[in-house]
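Hi R.,

As promised on Friday, here is the backbone we talked about, encoded as structure tokens. Could you run it through your design pipeline when you get a chance and send me back a sequence?
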């Protein structure tokens, strides 16, 4: 028993000595340890604390390896936490500080994504176009070109959207975005056949015949109510004026003019609502085509109002 304990004790001393020799010969980098801690926070979804740890690491060890990746993780942490302005600035810092990094392309792409997620579609579109002009051969280029088409679709600029999607399958035929882009470009040509109504025509029709503009815009019952109301009020005003009962004729006449003007306004609005409804239905078809393609992962079901979904923002 004593012999066993003696051997075990000697073994432990030898093991400790070897461990010390190994650590002295191959010291574990402090930057690696701290990076591992920050990575664990990032993987757990504690993005703001991860960003803090990555920033501290970047400050303390600016010359350590893979600092461009650390800078990228700072931006990604902010983006995943919903701090989009901070994320955009962090991505720009990466671009300015490490211009030769392989992550620059993705940083530029994510800057555009940040603008889109924050609701600034114009700036997002400009950033996507700038990305394409600088990185047309990038593996991200087909996705970016496809997203440009989606932005034009969201704004109802059908011709521009069709052109963007046509560029995807003509320029990047081997991309997974090519086939669905071809289908979308073909479908969107039907936008010219949508049964749209002119607000101007609707207003003129109601000015000539009260309620006819609403009938033209698909609201037949409202148009009939307007027509009957105008006939009743107009007739009443003329009747009391003929009876020289102006104290009644004038208020009724004013009311009939208000009813007349409101009918014109409602006709114009009805035409606009008619157009929006059919454009939304058409946009829903395109959006459903994108959903069924599976290009952007799982997207939430359609809601009453169309929402542009470009891609998921977590990394």
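Update: got your reply. Pasting your designed sequence below so it's all in one thread:
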């Amino acid at each position: 028993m004593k012999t066993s304990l003696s051997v075990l004790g000697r073994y432990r001393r030898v093991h400790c000595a070897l461990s010390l020799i190994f650590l002295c010969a191959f010291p574990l980098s402090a930057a690696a340890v701290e990076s591992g801690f920050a990575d664990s926070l990032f993987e757990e979804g504690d993005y703001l604390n991860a960003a803090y740890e990555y920033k501290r690491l970047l400050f303390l060890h600016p010359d350590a390896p893979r600092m461009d990746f650390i800078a990228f993780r700072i931006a990604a942490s902010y983006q995943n936490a919903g701090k989009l302005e901070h994320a955009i600035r962090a991505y720009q810092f990466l671009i300015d500080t490490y211009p030769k990094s392989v992550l620059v392309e993705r940083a530029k792409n994510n800057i555009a994504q940040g603008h889109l997620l924050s609701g600034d579609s114009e700036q997002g579109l400009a950033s996507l176009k700038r990305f394409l002009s600088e990185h047309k051969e990038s593996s991200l280029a087909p996705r970016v070109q496809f997203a440009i088409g989606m932005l034009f679709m969201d704004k109802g600029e059908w011709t521009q959207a069709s052109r963007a999607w046509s560029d995807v399958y003509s320029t990047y035929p081997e991309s997974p975005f090519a086939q669905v882009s071809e289908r979308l470009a073909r479908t969107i040509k039907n936008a010219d056949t949508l049964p749209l109504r002119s607000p101007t025509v609707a207003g003129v029709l109601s000015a000539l015949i009260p309620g006819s503009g609403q009938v033209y815009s698909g609201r037949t019952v409202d148009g009939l109510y307007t027509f009957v109301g105008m006939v009743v009020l107009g007739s009443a005003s003329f009747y009391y004026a003929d009876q020289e009962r102006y104290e009644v004729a004038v208020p009724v006449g004013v009311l009939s003019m208000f009813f007349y003007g409101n009918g014109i306004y409602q006709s114009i609005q009805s035409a606009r609502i008619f157009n929006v409804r059919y454009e939304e239905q058409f946009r829903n078809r395109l959006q459903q085509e994108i959903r069924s393609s599976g290009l952007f992962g799982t997207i939430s079901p359609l809601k009453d109002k169309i929402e542009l979904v470009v891609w998921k923002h977590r990394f």
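One thing I noticed while checking it: Residues 246-293 form the longest helix (48 residues).

Thanks again,
M.
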